[in-house]
Amino acid sequence: MNPHAGRPLFFLLIVLLSACSEPAVEQIAVTVPENVTVPPDMAYIPAGNFIMGSPKDGRTPGGKTVRLPAYLIDRHETTRRQYHAFKADYTYSPKKANYPASHVTYHDADAYCRFRGKRLPTEAEWEKAARGTDGRKWPWRIFFQHPNNGFSGFIPEPVDKRDGWVSPYGVYGMGYNVWEWVADWYDYDGMPAERRKKFKVIRGGLTQTHLSVGASPTWFRNYMEPDKRFNFIGLRCAMDAGKTELK
Amino acid sequence: MNRLFRQFSVNRRRFLGFTALTLSGALAFLFKGKAFGTVDFRKNDNIPKNYIQNRDTPGFFIRSANPFPGVDIERWSLRVGGLVEHPATLTYEDLFHFKRVSQESRLKCVECWSAKAHWEGFPLAALIEKVRPRPAARYVYLQSADSYYESYTLDELLKPRVLLVFRMNGQALSPEHGFPLRLIAPFKYGYKNIKYITRIDFTDSRKQNYWARFGPYSVDGTIQPGIDHPLDFNKKPLPINGGEVFHFFDKRPT
User: Fold this and answer.
1) Fewer CB atoms < 10 Å away: N or C end of chain A?
2) How many CA atoms lie within 13 A of A220 on its CB side?
3) Residue A79 is part of a domain; what is its CATH number?
């Protein structure tokens, strides 16, 4: 008997096990109304309730139910190539054309979305697109350790790199890669009056402490002065459902 | 015969291995804490007392990549060159001729802690006015007296609150804090805030920095969102949003 006869089967098993290490995220079945056109790079989020915030964080809505009308949101973060089309002096390496645009202020991000015939998502729209309707902590439901854990610093990556890390609506980058400007001010119940309307909310990037790098939960609110630009902040756009005047 | 030879060769291998192990053990005992030709500075006991490697300065931790005795100010100068119209060599006294700017800002170490100080110095723009970088100069490479080096984009160093500093908390910089000249870039981790600067070169391409070469730290070094352990708050963990660190008890610049 050939002692190596079992090897192909063994390797096949290893390949299958590897493929199963990050199970596909179960997608919410969505019916798009006939009068709504959904561009291929956007996701349609139907009207309805979702759970916003977490009772663990007093600076969030605390896990209350919020109802939103239907809307569209970009499946991916805005890329450097896309942003360059809006702002010609925004330079990037051709090798990294598909990486997220960064070093943009809130006002830059807002202007870019308007240029595209869209708008920045509200914070509620961003969160619903990330966590669906079951109040999950991670868009992809179960915790994944980030592969850059053990490094200090931000390493951006292509906006469509991680098929396994999508939301239940098929949206990428909700909790990793860059943080994203959203339309809301960073205010919360009990916030001192003098600090209100000074910071804009940024959502869905990586948190880092020394050598630990991790995704941020769907309900996590970060903030930044609207005129600041950093390598870890980018954007994505949204629009009302039914609006079709894209540019 | 062959069998005998093979047996002997195995025994010889074992004998040589045993001898090597014994000798290396003996040498390791004799030269405990030292590597051949160099001293292992990872152990505090091996650092000469007159060298700068104080890890317990009140209010701040000191981390020197390469412990050294400090700068002899009689021999110190700052050379500014590279892609500039007017290369310059400055003495310590020359630093006082720039219009002085002061600020309170926090130094945030990549190893979790942060500490606040009052810094006095001058912005890079003042130096630029003197040496006139050429249009191709897009990066800045800084070198220090303790064999450290850092690199920045020119744009980063021209941001508000980035200073070349020669005074701290109302006094000249102490040897531990980088006398006579250091950089303070509050939105970058401490390792980007190079001390004991001796040379600044304007370049057209990015040069590597010290810690990106030797440690798991990015060249960019922008402070990321996460948790800080401020030394003026008993190291109690507090969230930070990324960029320059301001805690709820810090006054933000207006």
Assistant:
1) N
2) 24
3) 3.90.1580.10
Q: Could you give the CA distance from residue B167 to residue B174 in angstroms, rounded to a whole number?
A: 9
**Close Cβ partners of B21 (under 8 Å, ≥ 6 residues apart):** none
Cβ contact, residue pair B224, A155, below 8 Å: no
Cβ of A83: how many Cβ atoms within 10 Å? 22
Partner B contacted by A91 (CB < 8 A): no
Kindly indicate whether the ipTM for this predicted assembly is greater than 0.95, answering yes or no: no
Q: What is the largest CA-CA distance in chain B?
A: 91
Task: Kindly report the CATH number assigned to the domain that includes residue B207.
Answer: 3.90.420.10
A154 touches B at CB < 8 Å: yes
Q: Across the interface, do B218 and A154 touch by the CB < 8 Å criterion?
A: yes
Q: For residues B238 and A178, give the distance between their C-alpha atoms in angstroms, rounded to a whole number.
A: 22
Angle A191-A192-A196 from CA coordinates, rounded to 5°: 75
- Total domains present in chain B: 2
- What is the average pLDDT value for chain B, to the nearest integer? 85
Structural domain harbouring A117: 26-240
Of all residues in chain B, the one with the smallest CA distance to A179 is B225
Position B188 in a domain: yes
Residue A145's SS3 state is: coil
Q: What is the pLDDT of residues B32-81, one digit of tens each?
A: 444 444 556 556 667 666 666 555 555 788 877 788 889 999 999 999 99
Residues B80 and B23 in one domain: no
Q: How many structural domains is chain A composed of?
A: 1
CB atoms within 10 A of CB B120: 19
Establish if A106 touches chain B: CB-CB under 8 angstroms.
no
Q: Are residues B86 and B173 in the same domain?
A: yes
B69 Cβ contact list (under 8 Å, min separation 6): B48, B50, B51, B52
pTM, 2 dp: 0.85
Q: Same domain for B110 and B12? A: no
Contacts of B140 (CB under 8 A, 6+ apart): B124, B151, B152, B153, B154, B157, B200, B201, B202, B203
Q: Are residues B26 and B87 in the same domain?
A: no
Q: Indicate the residue type of B76.
A: W
Are both B78 and B26 inside the same structural domain? Answer: no
- pLDDT surpasses 90 at B27: no
Asked if the Cβ–Cβ distance from A230 to B225 is below 8 Å, we say no
Q: Are A215 and A226 in contact (CB under 8 A)?
A: no
- Interface check for A194 against chain B (CB to CB < 8 A): the answer is no
Q: Is residue A5 one of the residues assigned to a domain? A: no
Q: Domain residues for B18? A: 2-30
